[in-house]
Amino acid sequence: MPFLSDTLARVKPSPTIAVSNLAAELKAQGKDVIGLGAGEPDFDTPQNIKDAAKAAIDAGKTKYTAVDGIPELKQAICDKFQRDNGLTYTPAQVSVGTGGKQILYNALMATLNPGDEVIIPAPYWVSYPDMVLLAGGAPVIAEAGADTAYKLTPAALEAAITPKTKWFIFNSPSNPTGAGYTAEELKGLTDVLMRHPHVWVMSDDMYEHLVYDGFEFVTPAQIEPGLYDRTLTCNGVSKAYAMTGWRIGYAAGPEEIIKAMRKIQSQSTSNPSSVSQWAALEALTGPQDFLGPNNETFKRRRDLVVEMLNAAEGVTCPVPEGAFYVYPSIEGCMGKTTPGGVTIDSDEAFATALLEEKGVAVVFGGAFGLSPCFRVSYATSDENLKEACTRIQDFCASLT
Protein backbone atom coordinates (compact mmCIF):
# COMPACT_ATOMS: atom_id res chain seq x y z
CA MET A 1 0.00 0.00 0.00
CA PRO A 2 1.52 3.39 -1.02
CA PHE A 3 2.02 5.80 1.85
CA LEU A 4 1.27 9.06 0.01
CA SER A 5 -2.22 10.03 -1.07
CA ASP A 6 -3.33 9.42 -4.65
CA THR A 7 -4.56 13.04 -4.59
CA LEU A 8 -0.96 14.24 -4.89
CA ALA A 9 -0.71 12.66 -8.32
CA ARG A 10 -3.44 15.01 -9.56
CA VAL A 11 -1.61 18.23 -8.72
CA LYS A 12 1.74 19.89 -9.24
CA PRO A 13 3.71 22.48 -7.26
CA SER A 14 3.12 26.15 -8.10
CA PRO A 15 5.39 27.13 -11.02
CA THR A 16 5.35 30.80 -10.00
CA ILE A 17 6.65 29.98 -6.53
CA ALA A 18 9.22 27.64 -8.07
CA VAL A 19 10.57 30.41 -10.31
CA SER A 20 10.83 32.86 -7.42
CA ASN A 21 12.59 30.26 -5.27
CA LEU A 22 15.04 29.39 -8.05
CA ALA A 23 15.88 33.05 -8.62
CA ALA A 24 16.49 33.49 -4.88
CA GLU A 25 18.73 30.42 -4.79
CA LEU A 26 20.81 31.65 -7.72
CA LYS A 27 21.18 35.07 -6.12
CA ALA A 28 22.31 33.41 -2.90
CA GLN A 29 25.00 31.66 -4.93
CA GLY A 30 26.27 35.05 -6.03
CA LYS A 31 24.82 34.98 -9.54
CA ASP A 32 23.49 38.12 -11.18
CA VAL A 33 19.80 37.29 -11.45
CA ILE A 34 16.80 39.57 -11.86
CA GLY A 35 13.60 37.89 -10.74
CA LEU A 36 10.41 38.91 -12.54
CA GLY A 37 8.29 36.06 -11.22
CA ALA A 38 7.01 37.33 -7.88
CA GLY A 39 3.32 38.19 -7.75
CA GLU A 40 3.55 40.78 -5.00
CA PRO A 41 4.08 44.54 -4.80
CA ASP A 42 7.55 45.76 -3.87
CA PHE A 43 5.99 48.54 -1.77
CA ASP A 44 6.04 48.33 2.01
CA THR A 45 2.76 47.91 3.90
CA PRO A 46 1.43 51.41 4.69
CA GLN A 47 2.50 52.70 8.11
CA ASN A 48 -1.03 53.13 9.50
CA ILE A 49 -1.70 49.44 8.86
CA LYS A 50 1.50 48.39 10.58
CA ASP A 51 0.66 50.67 13.49
CA ALA A 52 -2.76 49.02 13.81
CA ALA A 53 -1.10 45.62 14.02
CA LYS A 54 1.29 46.84 16.71
CA ALA A 55 -1.60 48.32 18.65
CA ALA A 56 -3.45 45.02 18.43
CA ILE A 57 -0.44 43.20 19.86
CA ASP A 58 -0.07 45.73 22.66
CA ALA A 59 -3.78 45.38 23.46
CA GLY A 60 -3.44 41.62 23.77
CA LYS A 61 -5.52 40.84 20.70
CA THR A 62 -3.46 37.71 20.11
CA LYS A 63 -5.92 34.96 21.01
CA TYR A 64 -8.16 32.74 18.91
CA THR A 65 -10.93 34.60 17.10
CA ALA A 66 -14.13 33.45 15.47
CA VAL A 67 -13.28 30.81 12.88
CA ASP A 68 -13.86 32.97 9.82
CA GLY A 69 -13.21 36.48 11.04
CA ILE A 70 -13.74 39.02 13.80
CA PRO A 71 -17.08 40.88 13.66
CA GLU A 72 -15.38 44.25 13.14
CA LEU A 73 -13.57 43.03 10.03
CA LYS A 74 -16.65 41.34 8.62
CA GLN A 75 -18.61 44.57 8.97
CA ALA A 76 -15.79 46.51 7.29
CA ILE A 77 -15.88 44.04 4.41
CA CYS A 78 -19.64 44.57 4.06
CA ASP A 79 -19.05 48.32 4.02
CA LYS A 80 -16.31 47.91 1.40
CA PHE A 81 -18.57 45.91 -0.92
CA GLN A 82 -21.31 48.53 -0.59
CA ARG A 83 -18.92 51.44 -1.06
CA ASP A 84 -16.86 50.11 -3.95
CA ASN A 85 -19.19 47.70 -5.74
CA GLY A 86 -22.76 48.61 -4.78
CA LEU A 87 -23.24 45.12 -3.33
CA THR A 88 -25.18 44.62 -0.10
CA TYR A 89 -24.06 41.84 2.24
CA THR A 90 -24.49 41.10 5.93
CA PRO A 91 -21.66 39.84 8.17
CA ALA A 92 -23.30 36.39 8.08
CA GLN A 93 -22.58 36.35 4.33
CA VAL A 94 -18.84 37.03 4.79
CA SER A 95 -15.92 34.65 5.28
CA VAL A 96 -12.36 35.70 6.13
CA GLY A 97 -9.53 33.28 5.44
CA THR A 98 -5.78 32.96 5.50
CA GLY A 99 -5.23 34.63 2.13
CA GLY A 100 -7.32 34.72 -0.99
CA LYS A 101 -6.09 31.26 -1.94
CA GLN A 102 -7.69 29.67 1.14
CA ILE A 103 -10.99 31.38 0.40
CA LEU A 104 -11.11 29.90 -3.10
CA TYR A 105 -9.95 26.50 -1.85
CA ASN A 106 -12.54 26.40 0.93
CA ALA A 107 -15.32 27.17 -1.53
CA LEU A 108 -14.24 24.45 -3.93
CA MET A 109 -13.77 21.90 -1.16
CA ALA A 110 -17.19 22.73 0.22
CA THR A 111 -19.05 22.38 -3.09
CA LEU A 112 -17.35 19.99 -5.53
CA ASN A 113 -18.23 16.34 -5.96
CA PRO A 114 -16.48 13.87 -8.29
CA GLY A 115 -17.33 14.74 -11.88
CA ASP A 116 -18.33 18.33 -11.18
CA GLU A 117 -16.84 20.66 -13.76
CA VAL A 118 -15.31 24.10 -13.22
CA ILE A 119 -14.80 26.43 -16.19
CA ILE A 120 -11.46 28.26 -16.05
CA PRO A 121 -10.48 30.77 -18.75
CA ALA A 122 -6.91 30.39 -20.00
CA PRO A 123 -4.49 32.03 -19.41
CA TYR A 124 -5.30 31.33 -15.75
CA TRP A 125 -3.71 31.76 -12.35
CA VAL A 126 -1.70 28.58 -11.89
CA SER A 127 -3.54 27.49 -8.73
CA TYR A 128 -7.08 27.40 -10.12
CA PRO A 129 -6.94 24.02 -11.92
CA ASP A 130 -4.97 22.32 -9.17
CA MET A 131 -7.34 23.50 -6.46
CA VAL A 132 -10.23 22.11 -8.49
CA LEU A 133 -8.40 18.80 -8.82
CA LEU A 134 -7.61 18.69 -5.10
CA ALA A 135 -11.29 19.18 -4.39
CA GLY A 136 -12.19 16.26 -6.67
CA GLY A 137 -13.56 18.32 -9.54
CA ALA A 138 -12.66 18.51 -13.22
CA PRO A 139 -11.16 21.72 -14.66
CA VAL A 140 -12.60 22.70 -18.03
CA ILE A 141 -10.24 25.10 -19.77
CA ALA A 142 -11.78 27.73 -22.04
CA GLU A 143 -9.15 29.51 -24.10
CA ALA A 144 -9.02 33.30 -24.27
CA GLY A 145 -6.13 34.09 -26.57
CA ALA A 146 -4.34 37.20 -27.76
CA ASP A 147 -6.88 37.59 -30.58
CA THR A 148 -9.50 38.50 -27.96
CA ALA A 149 -7.07 40.48 -25.78
CA TYR A 150 -6.90 37.49 -23.39
CA LYS A 151 -10.58 37.90 -22.54
CA LEU A 152 -13.11 35.08 -22.70
CA THR A 153 -15.87 35.60 -25.23
CA PRO A 154 -19.53 34.81 -24.49
CA ALA A 155 -19.45 32.18 -27.25
CA ALA A 156 -16.46 30.43 -25.67
CA LEU A 157 -18.14 30.45 -22.25
CA GLU A 158 -21.37 29.08 -23.71
CA ALA A 159 -19.48 26.29 -25.46
CA ALA A 160 -17.76 25.23 -22.24
CA ILE A 161 -20.94 24.86 -20.17
CA THR A 162 -22.34 21.36 -19.72
CA PRO A 163 -24.92 19.84 -17.35
CA LYS A 164 -21.95 18.99 -15.09
CA THR A 165 -20.72 22.58 -14.78
CA LYS A 166 -20.85 23.82 -11.19
CA TRP A 167 -18.59 26.89 -11.18
CA PHE A 168 -17.23 29.50 -13.56
CA ILE A 169 -14.06 31.11 -12.19
CA PHE A 170 -13.73 34.73 -13.28
CA ASN A 171 -10.65 36.89 -12.67
CA SER A 172 -10.43 40.55 -13.68
CA PRO A 173 -7.96 42.17 -13.84
CA SER A 174 -6.26 38.91 -14.59
CA ASN A 175 -3.24 37.12 -13.31
CA PRO A 176 -1.25 36.44 -15.55
CA THR A 177 -2.29 38.85 -18.32
CA GLY A 178 -3.51 41.98 -16.55
CA ALA A 179 -6.53 41.94 -18.85
CA GLY A 180 -9.57 43.71 -17.40
CA TYR A 181 -13.15 43.28 -18.58
CA THR A 182 -15.24 46.36 -19.28
CA ALA A 183 -18.85 46.49 -18.09
CA GLU A 184 -20.02 45.70 -21.62
CA GLU A 185 -17.66 42.73 -21.96
CA LEU A 186 -18.69 41.35 -18.59
CA LYS A 187 -22.38 41.82 -19.40
CA GLY A 188 -21.87 39.51 -22.38
CA LEU A 189 -20.64 36.78 -20.03
CA THR A 190 -23.32 37.33 -17.39
CA ASP A 191 -26.01 37.12 -20.07
CA VAL A 192 -24.73 33.64 -20.88
CA LEU A 193 -24.71 32.67 -17.20
CA MET A 194 -28.28 33.83 -16.75
CA ARG A 195 -29.30 31.18 -19.30
CA HIS A 196 -27.67 28.46 -17.19
CA PRO A 197 -29.02 28.71 -13.64
CA HIS A 198 -27.05 25.68 -12.42
CA VAL A 199 -23.71 27.47 -12.89
CA TRP A 200 -22.27 29.45 -9.97
CA VAL A 201 -19.74 32.27 -10.33
CA MET A 202 -16.52 32.53 -8.35
CA SER A 203 -15.23 36.05 -8.98
CA ASP A 204 -11.61 36.62 -7.96
CA ASP A 205 -11.35 40.41 -7.62
CA MET A 206 -7.94 40.50 -5.94
CA TYR A 207 -6.56 43.14 -8.36
CA GLU A 208 -9.65 45.37 -8.21
CA HIS A 209 -7.82 48.54 -7.22
CA LEU A 210 -4.85 48.06 -9.57
CA VAL A 211 -6.26 49.51 -12.80
CA TYR A 212 -4.93 52.14 -15.20
CA ASP A 213 -5.83 54.62 -17.92
CA GLY A 214 -9.25 55.36 -16.44
CA PHE A 215 -10.38 51.73 -16.57
CA GLU A 216 -13.47 51.17 -14.40
CA PHE A 217 -13.55 47.93 -12.45
CA VAL A 218 -16.78 45.93 -12.31
CA THR A 219 -17.66 42.58 -10.77
CA PRO A 220 -20.27 40.04 -11.98
CA ALA A 221 -22.93 40.43 -9.25
CA GLN A 222 -22.70 44.18 -9.73
CA ILE A 223 -23.32 43.93 -13.48
CA GLU A 224 -26.07 41.32 -13.22
CA PRO A 225 -28.09 41.40 -9.96
CA GLY A 226 -29.77 38.19 -11.08
CA LEU A 227 -26.51 36.38 -10.31
CA TYR A 228 -26.30 37.64 -6.72
CA ASP A 229 -27.67 34.43 -5.19
CA ARG A 230 -25.13 32.23 -6.98
CA THR A 231 -22.01 34.37 -6.90
CA LEU A 232 -19.11 34.20 -4.46
CA THR A 233 -17.28 37.54 -4.69
CA CYS A 234 -13.70 37.06 -3.49
CA ASN A 235 -11.07 39.64 -2.64
CA GLY A 236 -8.33 40.40 -0.12
CA VAL A 237 -5.79 42.91 1.09
CA SER A 238 -2.69 41.27 -0.39
CA LYS A 239 -2.10 43.21 -3.59
CA ALA A 240 -3.47 46.76 -3.40
CA TYR A 241 -2.46 47.16 0.26
CA ALA A 242 0.96 45.47 -0.13
CA MET A 243 0.05 42.90 2.52
CA THR A 244 0.91 39.60 0.82
CA GLY A 245 2.63 38.18 3.91
CA TRP A 246 -0.21 39.11 6.25
CA ARG A 247 -2.40 36.44 4.62
CA ILE A 248 -5.91 37.84 4.70
CA GLY A 249 -8.47 37.10 2.02
CA TYR A 250 -12.24 37.33 2.16
CA ALA A 251 -15.41 36.56 0.26
CA ALA A 252 -19.11 37.33 0.38
CA GLY A 253 -21.97 35.28 -0.95
CA PRO A 254 -25.06 33.28 0.00
CA GLU A 255 -25.14 32.19 3.64
CA GLU A 256 -25.39 28.53 2.60
CA ILE A 257 -21.94 28.50 1.04
CA ILE A 258 -20.39 30.75 3.70
CA LYS A 259 -21.51 28.28 6.38
CA ALA A 260 -20.03 25.40 4.39
CA MET A 261 -16.74 27.25 3.97
CA ARG A 262 -16.70 27.97 7.70
CA LYS A 263 -17.04 24.26 8.42
CA ILE A 264 -14.08 23.44 6.16
CA GLN A 265 -11.95 26.15 7.77
CA SER A 266 -12.91 25.06 11.28
CA GLN A 267 -11.26 21.71 10.65
CA SER A 268 -8.21 22.98 8.77
CA THR A 269 -6.58 26.25 9.86
CA SER A 270 -9.34 27.68 12.07
CA ASN A 271 -9.13 31.48 12.31
CA PRO A 272 -6.73 33.64 10.31
CA SER A 273 -4.02 35.44 12.31
CA SER A 274 -5.70 37.68 14.86
CA VAL A 275 -3.14 40.44 14.41
CA SER A 276 -3.46 40.31 10.62
CA GLN A 277 -7.22 40.68 10.93
CA TRP A 278 -6.87 43.92 12.90
CA ALA A 279 -4.35 45.15 10.33
CA ALA A 280 -6.80 44.30 7.53
CA LEU A 281 -9.53 46.22 9.35
CA GLU A 282 -7.33 49.31 9.24
CA ALA A 283 -6.52 48.67 5.59
CA LEU A 284 -10.20 48.69 4.62
CA THR A 285 -11.32 51.52 6.88
CA GLY A 286 -8.25 53.74 7.05
CA PRO A 287 -6.83 56.22 4.52
CA GLN A 288 -6.85 55.05 0.91
CA ASP A 289 -4.81 57.93 -0.48
CA PHE A 290 -1.72 55.82 -1.17
CA LEU A 291 -3.56 53.78 -3.82
CA GLY A 292 -3.36 56.54 -6.44
CA PRO A 293 0.41 57.16 -6.21
CA ASN A 294 1.09 53.41 -6.12
CA ASN A 295 -0.98 52.94 -9.25
CA GLU A 296 0.88 55.74 -11.00
CA THR A 297 4.13 53.93 -10.24
CA PHE A 298 2.75 50.66 -11.57
CA LYS A 299 1.43 52.37 -14.71
CA ARG A 300 4.83 53.90 -15.40
CA ARG A 301 6.46 50.52 -15.00
CA ARG A 302 3.85 48.87 -17.19
CA ASP A 303 4.45 51.35 -19.98
CA LEU A 304 8.22 50.92 -19.68
CA VAL A 305 8.02 47.13 -19.87
CA VAL A 306 5.50 47.03 -22.71
CA GLU A 307 7.57 49.42 -24.82
CA MET A 308 10.84 47.57 -24.22
CA LEU A 309 9.41 44.08 -24.76
CA ASN A 310 7.71 45.13 -27.99
CA ALA A 311 11.15 46.27 -29.15
CA ALA A 312 12.51 42.74 -28.65
CA GLU A 313 12.74 40.59 -31.79
CA GLY A 314 9.98 38.01 -32.03
CA VAL A 315 8.05 39.37 -29.03
CA THR A 316 4.59 40.94 -29.04
CA CYS A 317 3.35 42.46 -25.77
CA PRO A 318 -0.23 43.75 -25.37
CA VAL A 319 -1.01 46.65 -23.03
CA PRO A 320 -2.93 45.32 -20.00
CA GLU A 321 -5.68 47.21 -18.19
CA GLY A 322 -4.63 46.29 -14.65
CA ALA A 323 -2.73 44.15 -12.13
CA PHE A 324 1.08 44.25 -12.39
CA TYR A 325 1.77 41.67 -15.07
CA VAL A 326 2.32 41.57 -18.80
CA TYR A 327 1.95 38.44 -20.89
CA PRO A 328 3.96 38.77 -24.11
CA SER A 329 3.78 36.27 -26.96
CA ILE A 330 7.07 34.78 -28.20
CA GLU A 331 5.60 33.28 -31.36
CA GLY A 332 8.37 34.94 -33.35
CA CYS A 333 11.08 33.22 -31.31
CA MET A 334 9.84 29.68 -31.70
CA GLY A 335 12.12 27.26 -33.55
CA LYS A 336 15.19 29.45 -33.15
CA THR A 337 18.43 28.48 -31.39
CA THR A 338 20.31 30.23 -28.59
CA PRO A 339 24.06 30.91 -28.69
CA GLY A 340 24.31 28.09 -26.15
CA GLY A 341 22.81 25.65 -28.65
CA VAL A 342 19.34 25.37 -27.10
CA THR A 343 16.42 25.11 -29.50
CA ILE A 344 13.45 27.24 -28.47
CA ASP A 345 10.74 24.63 -29.00
CA SER A 346 8.51 25.78 -26.13
CA ASP A 347 8.02 28.77 -23.87
CA GLU A 348 9.48 26.70 -21.04
CA ALA A 349 12.67 26.25 -23.09
CA PHE A 350 12.69 30.02 -23.71
CA ALA A 351 12.35 30.83 -19.99
CA THR A 352 14.98 28.29 -18.97
CA ALA A 353 17.51 29.53 -21.52
CA LEU A 354 16.77 33.16 -20.63
CA LEU A 355 17.56 32.43 -16.99
CA GLU A 356 20.69 30.41 -17.73
CA GLU A 357 22.15 32.70 -20.40
CA LYS A 358 20.96 36.16 -19.27
CA GLY A 359 20.02 35.78 -15.61
CA VAL A 360 16.38 36.87 -16.00
CA ALA A 361 13.72 34.79 -14.28
CA VAL A 362 10.23 34.81 -15.85
CA VAL A 363 7.39 32.28 -15.72
CA PHE A 364 6.73 30.33 -18.92
CA GLY A 365 3.27 30.55 -20.44
CA GLY A 366 2.56 26.82 -20.31
CA ALA A 367 2.18 27.17 -16.54
CA PHE A 368 -0.81 29.45 -17.18
CA GLY A 369 -2.39 27.27 -19.85
CA LEU A 370 -1.61 29.34 -22.96
CA SER A 371 1.58 29.17 -25.03
CA PRO A 372 3.94 30.36 -26.41
CA CYS A 373 4.14 33.23 -23.95
CA PHE A 374 5.74 34.23 -20.68
CA ARG A 375 4.68 36.31 -17.71
CA VAL A 376 6.57 39.27 -16.35
CA SER A 377 5.74 40.83 -13.01
CA TYR A 378 6.64 44.51 -13.09
CA ALA A 379 6.27 44.88 -9.33
CA THR A 380 9.93 45.76 -8.96
CA SER A 381 12.14 48.81 -9.44
CA ASP A 382 12.45 50.74 -12.70
CA GLU A 383 16.16 49.99 -12.64
CA ASN A 384 15.57 46.24 -12.45
CA LEU A 385 12.93 46.38 -15.14
CA LYS A 386 15.13 48.35 -17.56
CA GLU A 387 18.05 46.00 -17.05
CA ALA A 388 15.89 42.88 -17.32
CA CYS A 389 14.16 44.07 -20.48
CA THR A 390 17.50 45.01 -22.02
CA ARG A 391 18.73 41.49 -21.32
CA ILE A 392 15.56 40.04 -22.87
CA GLN A 393 16.12 42.19 -25.96
CA ASP A 394 19.72 40.98 -26.19
CA PHE A 395 18.64 37.36 -25.70
CA CYS A 396 16.03 37.56 -28.45
CA ALA A 397 18.46 39.31 -30.80
CA SER A 398 20.96 36.49 -30.25
CA LEU A 399 18.56 33.79 -31.42
CA THR A 400 19.24 32.39 -34.89
TrEMBL record:
The coenzyme or cofactor needed here is:
pyridoxal 5'-phosphate
Concerning InterPro entries, the annotation shows: Aminotransferase_I/II_large, AspAT/PAT-like, NHTrfase_class1_PyrdxlP-BS, PyrdxlP-dep_Trfase, PyrdxlP-dep_Trfase_major, PyrdxlP-dep_Trfase_small
Catalytic reaction(s) noted: L-aspartate + 2-oxoglutarate = oxaloacetate + L-glutamate
SUPFAM superfamilies in the cross-refs:
PLP-dependent transferases
Molecular function in Gene Ontology:
transaminase activity
EC no. given is: 2.6.1.-
Q: What is the superkingdom listed in this entry's lineage?
A: Bacteria
Q: Which UniProt keywords apply?
A: Aminotransferase, Pyridoxal phosphate, Transferase
Span of domain Aminotransferase class I/classII large: 31-392
Alphabetized Pfam families for the sequence: Aminotran_1_2 (PF00155)
Report the PANTHER family cross-referenced here. ASPARTATE AMINOTRANSFERASE
- Family from the record: Belongs to the class-I pyridoxal-phosphate-dependent aminotransferase family.
Q: Give the protein's recorded name.
A: Aminotransferase
Lineage at the top is: Bacteria, Pseudomonadati, Pseudomonadota, Alphaproteobacteria, Rhodobacterales
